[in-house]
Amino acid sequence: MTRVVAMGGGTGLATLLRGIKSFTDSLTGIVTMADDGGSSGRLRRELGVLPPGDVRNCLVALADDESLMRRLFAYRFENGSLAGHSFGNLFLAALSEVTGNFEQAVLESSRVLAIRGSVLPSTTTDVRLGARLRDGSHLFGQSVIAKAQSPIQTVWLEPTEAPALPLALERIRQAELVVLGPGSLYTSVIPNLLVGGMGEALRETRAQVVFVNNVMTQPGETQGYDAEDHLRGILSHLGEGVVDVMLVNDRPIPGELLALYERQGAEPVTWGPKSEDLGVRVVSAPLADVNRFVRHDPCDLARTLLTLAG
């Protein structure tokens, strides 16, 4: 059974985990702790807990799709003072205070949901994401950086010495396949790579390290980026010689969906042989789900990734 570690945040990581759980139980999702928007941001500010939202998404993705607990964790309140909060976020926040430990809260939630595999925070330090833009200005906070009006040059975490969760580093070193993405490049994928020890673990692992490029660009954060630009963003923070493969979509996108996304400032991520000049093998496959929205198809992505395991 292939040992897989997937790193990211937001909906991208949850999508991948939902697909790959059908093929292996030896699966670990490592989740960014930089989220400060929405329900997670409110709980961080009001209770001082680590952001639970992306962890909750991943726990739900790995749970039995038919379980009552899965539906309960995904339930979002619509009225009153709890409007905008999901039950899963509140549960994780409360359990963090009861146990005094976010890592333990995630572990206990995993047992409640009887998930396949495991979910780990990349760090248990309270971190904040910073960014320097190409125009020389600085932004702070994941939710603010995601709306940047100038191209992002570099991002970092504060405190800069925030250590990675030791178990996360151990899982990377033991893996046969490590997946970076899909997800928001600067605010979901790269923040995981910035915690102390993560870069070293990725260099030491014998696993194939695969960067899953996004199907569409993201307005503000990666507007105008092609596949090589995304890859350069990863390598500029991680260093060259770590990523083995870049996976890109080659399934055509219907014209009506393209027009819809173009009105929102998004376009397909294009790719070509020039990406291999960076020392990374490019693999294309039909990965996109192009029904109502353009996103990765969980099963197609999972099957393709497992063929790349060393």
Element layout with pairings:
Elements: E1 4-8, H1 10-20, E2 27-31, H2 38-47, H3 53-62, H4 68-74, H5 87-99, H6 102-113, E3 118-121, E4 128-133, E5 138-140, H7 142-145, E6 152-158, H8 166-174, E7 177-180, H9 185-193, H10 198-204, E8 208-212, H11 227-238, E9 245-249, H12 255-263, E10 281-285, E11 288-289, E12 295-296, H13 298-306
Parallel strand pairs: 1-2, 1-7, 2-3, 7-8, 8-9, 9-10
Antiparallel strand pairs: 4-5, 4-6, 11-12
Helix pairs in contact: 1-3, 1-13, 3-4, 5-6, 8-10, 9-11
Please, could you describe this protein's structure?
With 310 residues, this protein is an alpha/beta fold. It folds into 2 domains: 1-33 and 144-310, 3-Layer(aba) Sandwich (Rossmann fold), CATH 3.40.50; 35-121. It is 39% helix and 17% strand. A 7-stranded parallel β-sheet has the order 3-2-1-7-8-9-10, sandwiched between helices. Strands 5-4-6 form a 3-stranded antiparallel β-sheet. Strands 11-12 form a two-stranded antiparallel ribbon. Helix 1 (10-20) crosses helix 13 (298-306), helix 3 (53-62) packs antiparallel against helix 4 and helix 5 packs across helix 6 (102-113).
| Helix-strand topology string | EHEHHHHHEEEHEHEHHEHEHEEEH
Count of discrete domains: 2
- Shape, per Cα inertia axes: globular
CATH superfamily of the largest domain: CofD-like domains
CATH class of the largest domain: Alpha Beta
Give the helix/strand class.
Answer: alpha/beta
Order of strands in the sheet with most strands: 3-2-1-7-8-9-10
Query: What distance lies between the first and last C-alpha atoms, to the nearest angstrom?
Result: 12 Å
Portion of residues in beta strands equals: 15-25%
